[in-house]
Specification:
This protein is of the alpha+beta class. It is built from eleven helices and 17 strands. Strands 7, 8, 9, 10, 11, 12, 14, 15 and 16 form a nine-stranded mixed beta sheet that branches. Strands 1, 2, 3, 4, 5 and 6 form a six-stranded mixed beta sheet that branches. Helix 1 runs parallel beside helix 6, helix 2 packs across helix 3 and helix 4 packs across helix 8. Bound molecules: glutamic acid (GLU) and magnesium ion. The site of magnesium ion has 3 residues, from loops.
Length: 448
């Protein structure tokens, strides 16, 4: 017999979350007051979910098909809880990043978060280094009530998004993301959100948190956001810039050497040389959709050649400025910015791939030659060749070919992850190849 009819209260839910190979966060939810039940053995998950394309079709063949069962095991320290926001009736946001494991607790070979965790551990074990990182995100904001276009970086553009930005900063703070800035960008209705760096896997978790919390605030306000690399044929592109620095195990920065004119230490040069050497293949993970290549064009302040530049926004890897005002020391500020990245990438997979390339550079003792402070596209082909500056792939199929032909990188990645990834991207290319450039922008603007 049911109990007397007290008014119902909605049950607060917590979600165990995995951000998959295509950068989509998925998971399962349960009543938050039953969290204890899920902390050690997690909840169920399905292997073939990892073979979903952004078009929501499972790519076949994949290593699992209809078979197999997995667990999402929560990493409790990564929990995100955001209380009441602009829509008082919205359910609170509460999720925990999870690692995908086999039902006996063994790590699952195609989990991007596990891949990153293992790589961060390799930095500690093999190189005695820690990784400090932050992701900057650009996005387009469409208000519920259509707004006129305002000038780039203007106060008027800031005011148009100021209430949104205020809620966003509050929610990011509540989530422990340590947001820094909300700013109007160069494009129409384009904004950027930056946050402070943090160590290891938590940096990629933060990137997911920024994306999902930005979407949540937009949903509550009746606005819409898109992180797609290009939202219209004439639109200014949305990039994601990954700032990285390395520290020794005591936390002392190791990328900076005051004796060098550009400040980049010997270790930093080897690391950067590794990233540049493997960059054409890395693009398969960091610029992972057909639309990504509309952004990786010369004169877009993104990246179109594999080169390092100091303060050069046309370089795929940029030595960021340090500020000496007030006697601030350079070493803790000094970092490299990886720019050949957009939000159609999985933050965990992309960061792991960049770290693998940098580690190979250190282990191989590579020499850095691909440096330019000019726009690389404006150099003569001979000069580029002399400086070892190669063009990035011009399309996703080209990037996938570069990866397929890069045994050194392939052998660092688990075979089931690669098999699934190639299947997903192959189907994605087929599903989108009939679209015009304008349709491609529109298509991905809705998906990301
Ligand atoms: N919007 C540019 C991009 O697609 C970046 C501009 C900037 O340097 O902030 O990466
Ligand atoms: Mg920017």
């Amino acid at each position: 017999m049911s109990r007397a009819s007290e008014p119902l209260q909605p049950v607060a839910m917590t979600t165990l979350l995995t951000t998959d190979l295509i950068g989509v966060s998925r998971g399962r939810s349960f009543p938050s007051d039953e969290l204890d039940h899920y902390t050690s053995a997690g909840c169920g998950w399905v292997p073939a979910n990892s073979a979903l394309t952004p078009q929501d079709l499972i790519a076949e063949p994949n290593p699992w098909g209809a078979h197999g069962d997995l667990r999402l095991i929560p990493d409790l320290a990564s929990r995100v809880r955001v209380g009441q926001g602009p829509d008082a009736s919205a359910a609170p946001l509460d999720f925990i990043h999870a690692d995908i494991r086999e039902t006996d607790g063994q790590p699952w070979a195609a989990c991007p978060r596990t891949l990153l965790r293992d790589e961060v551990q390799r930095y500690a074990d093999k190189l005695e280094l820690q990784v400090n990182a932050a992701f900057e995100h650009e996005f387009n904001l469409r208000r519920a009530v259509a707004q006129p276009e305002r000038l780039a970086f203007s106060l008027q553009a800031q005011r148009q998004g100021a209430d949104f930005g205020g809620w966003l900063l509050a929610a990011l703070r509540a989530a422990g993301v340590e947001p820094e800035m909300f700013l109007p960008e160069y494009g129409k209705h384009q904004y950027e959100i930056t946050c402070r760096p943090t160590l290891g896997v938590a940096a990629a978790d933060r990137a997911v948190n920024v994306r999902e919390i930005t979407r949540e605030i937009a949903r509550q306000l009746g606005d819409s956001v898109s992180f797609a690399p290009k939202t219209g044929e004439d639109a200014v592109c949305n990039g994601v810039h990954l700032h990285l620095s390395l520290q020794d195990l005591d936390g002392a920065p190791v990328l900076y050497d005051p004796q060098r004119p550009d400040g980049l230490s010997r270790l930093g040069r080897q690391w950067a040389a590794g990233v540049l050497k493997y960059l054409p293949a890395l693009c398969a993970f960091t610029a992972p959709t057909p639309l990504s290549y509309a952004r990786l064009q010369p004169h877009h302040w993104s990246a179109s050649y594999a080169c390092l530049g100091q303060r050069n926004r046309e370089a795929s890897l940029r030595i960021c400025p340090t500020v000496s005002i007030g006697g601030k020391p350079a070493a803790p500020q000094y970092n490299l910015e990886f720019r050949a990245l957009d939000a159609t990438a999985s933050p965990h997979l992309a960061m792991a791939a960049v770290l693998i390339a940098g580690r190979l550079g250190i282990q191989q003792g590579l020499t850095l030659n691909a440096i330019t402070d000019k726009v690389p596209h404006d150099l003569s082909a001979d000069l580029r060749e002399a400086r070892g500056i190669v063009a990035l792939p011009a399309s996703l199929p080209q990037a996938l070919d570069c990866l397929r032909n890069c045994p050194e990188l392939l052998q660092e990645l688990p075979a089931p992850l690669l098999e699934t990834y190639f299947a997903v991207k192959h189907l994605e290319v087929k599903l989108t190849e009939h679209l015009t450039p304008a349709q491609l922008c529109e298509h991905y603007a809705h998906l990301y």
